[in-house]
Amino acid sequence: MFRDLGQMLLLLGNTVRGIPQAFRRRRAVGEQLYEIGNASLFMACMLSFFIGGVLALQGGAVLVHRGLGSQVGGLVGLSMCKELAPVMMAILIAGRIGSAMAAELGSMQAYQEVDALRTMNIHPIRYLVLPRLIAIAIALPALVIFSNIVGWLGGAFIASFNPDIAVPYATFMASLKDMVRMRDILHGLLKSFVFAIAIGTISCHHGLQTRGGPRGVGRSVTKAVTNSIVLVLLLDYILTRILLPFDA
Amino acid sequence: MNDPEPIQSQATGGLPISVRGLHMSFGAQEVLRGIDLEIKAGELFVLMGPSGSGKSVFLRQLIGLEQPTTGEVLVDGQSVTDETRHRARMAMVFQSGGLLNSLTVAENVGLYLREHRLRPPSEIARIVSEKLRLVQLPDDTSEKYPPELSGGMRKRVAIARALTMDPQLVLFDEPTSELDPLVALTVGREILRLNRQTQATTVVVTHDRDLAFGIAHRVAFLAEGRIQALGTPTEMRANPLPLLQQFLAADFTPQ
User: Fold this and answer.
1) Residue A184 within a domain
2) SS3 state at A41
3) pLDDT tens string A158-217
4) I need a surface site. Which of A54, A56, B228, B254 has the fewest CB within 10 A?
């Protein structure tokens, strides 16, 4: 495990050192961004709408019962932007994009494409990992912004149309605007950026470490997804602890 | 199809290879058990042997993709590192071709020149076209993706890609595996012709006896992790070594 961790840090270090060459890889970054957006945007919107809705349903019922129905917007707004949107989008991206990255790089390793790059003195990390890492680091925070907006709308929709809650849209949004500060949104975006780097690094690492044929690729994909999700949840706790004093 | 016009290579001739006391182990399994070998500059050298004898591992050592457990490989008197590989323009054609499936044939062939910014894009396009003609691939191949090609075509694209490096050393890993005899013959002739044209040192790893004896200046027989026999094709055919004779005589004739 520690060897894997060391190799991942080396991979990340090598990728960061390649950032000055990122402009040359802009086409590959664009392709990766398209892949991520295309694969995830619809799913992210669906997921976020229902998360916002469930939050409004669960929290709204309790708050209305205690005469605090006007605060449902704040509850949904803060829960989405600080916690649920970054974590749920990270898990979605780990499953959809992390697995695809590990599978693609794993196949390239298995079919000697990575070796071919090395024989041409083309740095596999700068050629293959750098564009993927940049793309995921841009795409995940962008998805979180979408997720926040759709989640809030989902919450507002359920809050206003569910007869047990019946909080009007305007009241919901007023509470949301009152309680959610820009700092809260930025905290969520910072978390999602860190999650993106973690998912990208883990997935590319396991892809490039693939040994053997299709079974090896399958093993790499499984490791990439499970390790990414575990690390996302661990990092979420650590980041929340670090960011907590700044919330005051 | 007519033979294309010969293309003047920029290679300055081949490089000599010196292999000294090469051992390679994977855990407890010792794959190479001490190989000493000299390959002359410009030579077309074939390493032949049964499957699993360590031929491909040996080839990966030659180009520095793996480091030996002990011993050393010297190319033109220097051990193989990323820098020396680049300077010496060492190219390898992999068993699977090693083509990038996400790139077209033209992008694959021009990859080395483009990534190292060795030529302007218009000249890269011209060189790619020349190299594809050299390996006798039709023009309409250039915009196809590797999965759309046959095994033989993929091998020829890989050869074309290696040639864009104007290599002084070219390594071929099982160039005729998975090919029918006619395509294998074409690929074998390409290797021979390229060696003559470019004078690049050429090392071919194969278990194809016809290919080995048909193109090689010298042949080595690798078995049980060691070079068991070495010589010209004529000398090898006459070599009485039982392991070699058993390998050469193996066929499907009913007993």
Assistant:
1) yes
2) helix
3) 999 988 888 899 999 999 999 999 999 999 999 999 999 999 999 999 999 998 888 899
4) B254
Are A112 and B95 an interchain contact pair (Cβ–Cβ within 8 Å)? yes
Give me the total of CB pairs closer than 8 Å, taking one residue from chain A and one from chain B.
Answer: 49
Burial of B47 per CB tally in 10 Å (0-12, 13-18, 19+): buried
Q: Report the gap between the CA of A12 and the closest CA in chain B (Å).
A: 20
Predicted confidence (pLDDT) at residue B137 exceeds the cutoff of 90: no
Spatial CA neighbour of B250 closest among B49, B58, B54, B57: B49
pLDDT band at A248 (very low <50, low <70, confident <90, very high): low
Chain A residues within 8 A of B166 when measuring between CB atoms? none
pLDDT at B50 over 80: yes
Taking an 8 Å cut-off on Cβ atoms, the answer to whether B111 and A119 are in contact is no
Report pLDDT digits (tens) over B195-225: 988 889 999 999 888 899 999 999 999 998 8
Are the beta carbons of A115 and B85 separated by less than 8 Å? no
Contact between A119 and B91 using a beta-carbon 8 Å cutoff: yes
**Is the dihedral angle over the CA atoms B105, B108, B109, B115 positive or is it negative?**
positive
DSSP β-bridge partners for residue B201:
B169
pLDDT of B22 above 50:
yes
Residue B7 host element (H or E): none
A119–B65 C-beta distance less than 8 A:
yes
Tally of structural domains, chain A: 1
Which chain A residue has the Cα nearest residue B87? A121
Residue A236 placed within a domain: yes
CA distance B175 to B193: 14
Task: Give dist(CA A242, CA B140) in Å, integer.
Answer: 59
What single letter denotes the amino acid at residue B112? Y
For residue A207, the enclosing domain spans 22-240
Cβ pair A60, A165 in contact under 8 A: yes
Integer Cα distance of A109 and A216 in angstroms: 10
* A9 within domain boundaries: no
Residue A245 lies in a domain: no
Question: DSSP assignment, residue B6?
Answer: P
CB-based contact B15:B172 (threshold 8 Å): no
Task: Single out the residue of A15, A4, A28, A6 nearest to residue A206, CA to CA.
Answer: A4
User: pLDDT band at residue B150, thresholds of 50, 70 and 90?
Assistant: confident
